[in-house]
Amino acid sequence: MKIEAMTEKYERWLGDESRIRGRADAVCFPESFEEAREAVSHARRAGLHITPQGARTGLTGGAVPEGGLVVDCQGLKDLELREGPVLYAGAGATLTQLHALLLKEPWVFPPNPTEESATLGGMFGCNAMGIDGQRTASWVRKLWWLTAAGEVWEIGRGSYVFDDSGCALPDGGRLSCETFESSGVLNGLVTVKQMDLIDFLAGTEGQLGMALAFELELAKKPDCDWGVLYFLPTDPAAMALCRAVAQAENSGSVTVMEYYDRAALSLLSEGRHNTAALQELPEFPQGAGAAVYVELAGDDPDALEGALFEQLDIFEGLGGSEEQTWAASERYEIDRFRKLRHVVPELANGKTDSFSQAVPGLTRLSSDLKGPAEKAEDYLEMYRGGIAQSGAHAVIYGAAAQNRFHVNFLPETPEERAKCEVLMAEWAARAAADRGQIITENGAGLLKRELALRFVPEAVKRQIKAVKEAFDPEGVFK
Ligand SMILES: Cc1cc2nc3c(=O)[nH]c(=O)nc-3n(C[C@H](O)[C@H](O)[C@H](O)COP(=O)(O)OP(=O)(O)OC[C@H]3O[C@@H](n4cnc5c(N)ncnc54)[C@H](O)[C@@H]3O)c2cc1C
């Protein structure tokens, strides 16, 4: 495998969807385990740090190199449905390829961060989640992991589990370290009691080694599903609907519940003229100040219809009407509704791009916090109040009932961006005090590493450093 010197031709490999630009000395494109091992050998010989990359769709700059060797994993793209059924997937296989393979099968791979070009390696690197709240790592049964020493570990789920003083490792050694009750504000790098080694390596953002391939578990495709978009006049009405739906008798069939605020709906309306996915949908009803998207899935059509009618009654009880409800039961229609979740951050990034024409260097900024579910209304008010007070522009969307909102800021100047950063820090402090998460699904990357570490206890920071030294004593990985 050739190691290419970094030239203009490889400019794209210096950035991701965070819009941060990095620098690198070289880039390589392994297509097999052996070639990936060669990349590690080269990095060790040349004293270069490796930044593993998938499709560079990450939102926080995790794949942005700060010098060294970029290892683009997209060539590791084997994909095969095997008996079980399980899916064998190379780290470079994309969601598009995976969904195409499963299209006619009775199986689904539930984790879906909505960005179809994302690779499984990148999803594992951030332990990405997405619309249905399913973590990537939870569906990994076996992992092929390339270590900083250039060894390939085959890790079966359940084979290596942390106890109170560390974890046995596949090379026969042992990682001796402190273990904690939870991962705290982070979504990776923290050694947690009873945690499977696979779950520990997920979310480490390419800092301890590199995923090469996975054996993935699949779920049975439900026989029927519904997607329903409810439009409401205000945030409190939307939150009341989320609460009532989550507590309804038939809430077990609810698989997705996403909230969009007024600004997100405006952004979508504004983006209609040049976004094909939006042109397939009617215009939003007049007076919509928020929307809640709910998916229901199950194998019993009557039970599912019962759940749907229960929901429609709840909506009506809150003053909603048929004109403010869009419902679909065909998969292609449901996929159109789902796309809204993807288009909001996409359009927000488009705005950042247009603002950065006037102010070069403006990067993306969005929150990825998770607070206690019972405080979702308080958090939404906190976000709303902070945005109004600072005069910032932002859109809010996310899993409201789980208090997992994304606030996507749209600053036009460095001064505005600085105000948004202050808000982010205040909100992060609140989430930390409430024992929530600051990094939930998008990774810390370069954008939020410093912010998140501010709220990590010293003992945990020491342990993160010690584990890095144990896994990667020469600092081969970034
Ligand atoms: C419009 C839009 C919407 C999005 N919505 C969501 C969402 O709902 N939920 C969500 O979670 N994410 C979302 N994302 C973010 C992104 O798609 C996910 O983080 C995705 O998992 C990144 O995959 P990737 O292949 O692009 O990884 P990259 O961006 O290339 O890398 C991500 C991280 O993983 C590391 N990495 C890459 N490959 C490997 C490997 N083989 N082994 C170890 N580490 C590796 C990188 O070093 C980096 O730290 C969205 C992105 C966009 C653009």
Please give a structural write-up.
The protein has 478 residues and is α+β, with helices and mostly antiparallel strands. The chain is built from 13 helices and 19 strands. The chain has helices spanning 33-46, 95-102, 120-126, 197-201, 235-247, 262-270, 276-279, 301-317, 331-358, 376-390, 414-433, 445-453, 458-471, and strands at 4-5, 26-28, 50-53, 69-72, 79-82, 86-90, 107-108, 140-146, 152-156, 166-168, 174-176, 210-217, 219-220, 224-232, 254-261, 290-298, 325-328, 394-399, 404-409. It has a six-stranded antiparallel beta sheet, with helices on both faces. The chain has a five-stranded antiparallel beta sheet with strand order 5-6-12-8-9. Strands 1-2-4-3 form a four-stranded mixed beta sheet, covered by helices on one side. Helix 10 (376-390) runs antiparallel to helix 11. The longest helix has 28 residues, at 331-358. It comes from Eubacterium callanderi.
Brief sketch in words of this structure:
The chain is of the alpha+beta class and 478 residues long. 34% of the residues lie in helices and 20% in strands.
Which helices and strands occur, and which strands form pairs?
Elements: E1 4-5, E2 26-28, H1 33-46, E3 50-53, E4 69-72, E5 79-82, E6 86-90, H2 95-102, E7 107-108, H3 120-126, E8 140-146, E9 152-156, E10 166-168, E11 174-176, H4 197-201, E12 210-217, E13 219-220, E14 224-232, H5 235-247, E15 254-261, H6 262-270, H7 276-279, E16 290-298, H8 301-317, E17 325-328, H9 331-358, H10 376-390, E18 394-399, E19 404-409, H11 414-433, H12 445-453, H13 458-471
Parallel strand pairs: 2-4, 3-4
Antiparallel strand pairs: 1-2, 5-6, 6-12, 7-13, 8-9, 8-12, 10-11, 14-16, 14-17, 15-16, 15-18, 18-19
Helix pairs in contact: 10-11
The structure holds flavin-adenine dinucleotide.
Flavin-adenine dinucleotide is lined by residues 16-17, 51-59, 62-63, 73, 91, 113-115, 118-119, 121-123, 125-126, 128-130, 205-206, 210-211, 342, 345-346, 441-443.
